[in-house]
Amino acid sequence: MTRMNQLRRLPNSVRQARNGAAGPSYAFAAVVAAGALAATALLNRHLAKKAEHANPPAGQFLEVDGVQLHYVERGSGEPLVLLHGNGSMIQDFESSGLVDLAAKNYRVIIIDRPGFGHSSRPRNVIWTPDAQAQLIRRALDRLGVSQAIVLGHSWGASVAVALALKFPDFVRGLVLASGYYYPTLRPDVVAMSAPAIPVVGDVMGHTVSPMISRMIWPMMTAMIFGPKSAPAKFKQFPKEMALRPSQIRASAAESALMIPDAFHFDDKYGELKMPVVIIAGEGDRLIDIDKQSARLHSDVAQSAFHRLPDNGHMIHQTATDEVMAAIDEVAATRPRRNQFPKRFHDSAWL
Fold this sequence. Notes:
The chain is α/β, with parallel strands linked by helices. It folds into two domains: 13-51; 55-331, Alpha/Beta hydrolase fold, catalytic domain (Rossmann fold, 3-Layer(aba) Sandwich). Helices cover 47% and strands 14% of the residues. The protein contains 15 helices and eight strands. The chain has helices at 3-9, 12-19, 22-54, 90-96, 98-102, 129-142, 155-166, 187-192, 200-206, 208-225, 239-242, 245-265, 293-299, 315-318, 320-331, and strands spanning 60-64, 67-74, 78-83, 106-111, 148-153, 171-177, 276-281, 303-308. It has an eight-stranded mixed β-sheet with strand order 1-2-4-3-5-6-7-8, sandwiched between helices. Helix 6 (129-142) packs across helix 7 (155-166) and helix 9 crosses helix 12 (245-265). The N and C termini lie far apart (98 Å). Residues 13-17 and 336-350 have low confidence and may be disordered.
């Protein structure tokens, strides 16, 4: 008897059950998957609220153009603005000890950039370095700052450059640490940008992305600090704040903007006329400093470039004294009539 004849002899109810078995099984799997995602989203929401409760705002807030900006202010003297990198926040600079050092001689203002730490990030704006520079300039104006030295680390270096290009009279000097300045092929950036994709990225950011980020946190820490190990003081950094869905999305959006922004600035660095100190770790595993920092040094005539041996991307954490010295170096340089009497070279002012 053929298979077809066997099926024909079965009762209708049995045949219908067999023919429809695949449909219900897929539907059941979809329901289970949706339930698992919902449960994961609820867990991530709980962990995010727990992290915010454990790490309340340490500073004050300014509402500027609909953005709640969180900032910390310490010390007195010449204003010094610190801009953190992608995925980071105020506590990165605080845990490094740089804020304590700088506050001895400067009025230090550290800002949680939009979407990081306790600052909001409205979704009706594409938060390019230019957009962030305008926002930060207005915030500093509200704080009575008419001119400042600006330090930017990593992605924050792009915001610092944008601030200097848009408001050259405001930025008295620049310290650019571990920055990415010129477009290069970066497959890792494509992967890191996924949570910024509309709808799909939102689902990822509230469900699987925080979990994946927790699993790869040790590997990422080793990469950004290598060739050195993360110092004990970095334990003060609130990891769970960085793993909130909102901050993961902000970080992904900045990853997606990284290469386009580098194209945008590619031919503009020569317009920088203020003192510029470029500083980078020779062992940086995220950025090729010869293609980035060294090239920037060649494009900015009045710049100094300090290469730090045996240091990686997080130089403010592993070489805090050297970064502080770079700040003092800029502060000590006061050009006359926007002209520099001498050209600078690697690792020293002439």
